[in-house]
Amino acid sequence: MQDERTEYRGVYVNGEFHDGVDSFRVENPATGEPIATVAESGEQGVDDALESANRAQPEWAAMDPADRGRLLYRFAEAIADHAEELGEVVTRENGRPIGQSKGLADSAADYIEYYAGLTTKIEGETVPVPGTQQAFTRKEPLGVSAQIVPWNAPLLLCCRGIGPALAAGNAAVVKPAPEAPLGPLKLGELATEADLPDGVLNVVPGDGVTTGAALTDDPRVDEITFTGSVSTGQTVGKTAIDNVVPTALELGGKSPAIVFEDANLEGAVEGAMKALTLMSGQVCFATTRVFVHEARYDEFRDALREAVESVSIGPGIENPDLGPLVSEAGLGKVRRYVEQALENGATALTGGRTPDRDGYFYEPTVIEGADDDAPISREEVFGPVINLYEFSDEAEAVRRANDTEFGLYATVWTNDLGRAHRVANGIEAGSVMVNQYSGSYPQTPFGGHKKSGLGREKGMQAIDHYTQLKTVNIEYGDASDGALDG
């Protein structure tokens, strides 16, 4: 039922907002108070969106690629022009500090701009073949892409997927997380204002059980992109296999940071702080396992504790260092992991408590003394919690860093160039940063090893994912040889 105290947002299909089969509330996690009532798309909303997308996609794909690129540039400009508004919308719904949210809104525009520039560069190849033949390949759009977007970075992750999908000539149906649907809904509205054809981008808010399943199960979907938990990703992946459609899965992480004895300790501490405070640690690539060489462990631990204890905590709209967790359930999960670790002999160097204030806040926490096989060391906590470990040599550090079912991200801190290469090569992760926490750009591929996912987003590799390859082989010899006339 619609809450008359809040703004109402509908399902965005074919360039317009529509009512859904039901509605749900979106809360401000800093207060627990409702900020919006949003339509639940359900099967009917998904059906309408897919009908609209399938109707619009052929004309979009047939458009001159240069014209398609110009429209995407216009879309990127609209996002950039509304970055402040978009940042505020996202901060209200997921709690991220406003400075981070506005930065990600700008980055979202960068993704669309990057892929706008690639529309005229999606090229095939000529292939050497014998005799009087010519063979070449074409990259063609798949059709309709279903994009399931999480709540922690809805603008950036939405644009990271729809950018290459639309650039390649596909249409998209986006299902945002129920915790944070307002940003993606605004993106749909901006796409229409930028003159993208109606139906090319549709947004269907709702839960996973009804709306999400209706979208991924539908035979009119030609590709699925999912970012979220391993368990849900496995379900989505099985559905994709059953329907024989390509899928990209970006799943969980338990990313290591390795700090060697020759590291710039100030930079390494700063990297750990970014991992701890960025979206309150609710980031798949957060380096939550920090391995420090024994010669520098005490120095690093003391510096990190001092930095953590200076962190400001508050509502995201006030732009603190650390905002709230996204929900009461998320807060409870973090609290249980920390309590279990402490009960089993680990120590909270700092933090480990819930502040006495409204909202879903948790103190930034540094745990030491947890075993490598403890749940807090192996499972994704998704909160402002870092584990410290001591190591003695390079081989041990790499072995322990790889001792996880995940393989999304890692950071290495050393001034030894040879060691940097050896360790980066030895770590089982899709991305390895050296002497920095985040060095990610639209042009750099991103994805995971092991249970962290399948496929790659970003860069030209994403274009490959959103296209299918066709081989054309033409015989142009004499007709007497069996060739076609002319």
Automatic annotation (TrEMBL):
The answer to keyword Oxidoreductase applying to this record is yes
Q: Which family does it belong to?
A: Belongs to the aldehyde dehydrogenase family.
Q: Which UniProt keywords apply?
A: Oxidoreductase
Q: Which PROSITE patterns match?
A: ALDEHYDE_DEHYDR_GLU
PANTHER family the record matches = ALDEHYDE DEHYDROGENASE-RELATED (PTHR11699)
| InterPro entries (UniProt xref) | Ald_DH/histidinol_DH, Ald_DH_C, Ald_DH_CS_GLU, Ald_DH_N, Aldehyde_DH_dom
Phylogenetic placement of the source organism: Archaea, Methanobacteriati, Methanobacteriota, Stenosarchaea group, Halobacteria
Keyword Oxidoreductase present in the record's keywords: the answer is: yes
Protein's UniProt name: Aldehyde dehydrogenase (NAD+)
**Quaternary structure annotation from Swiss-Prot or TrEMBL:** Homotetramer.
Q: Which GO terms describe its molecular function?
A: oxidoreductase activity, acting on the aldehyde or oxo group of donors, NAD or NADP as acceptor
Please give the Pfam families that the UniProt record associates with this protein. Answer: Aldedh (PF00171)
Start and end residues of each Aldehyde dehydrogenase domain: 22-472
Record-annotated active site: E250
In terms of SUPFAM superfamilies, this protein maps to:
ALDH-like
The source's superkingdom equals Archaea
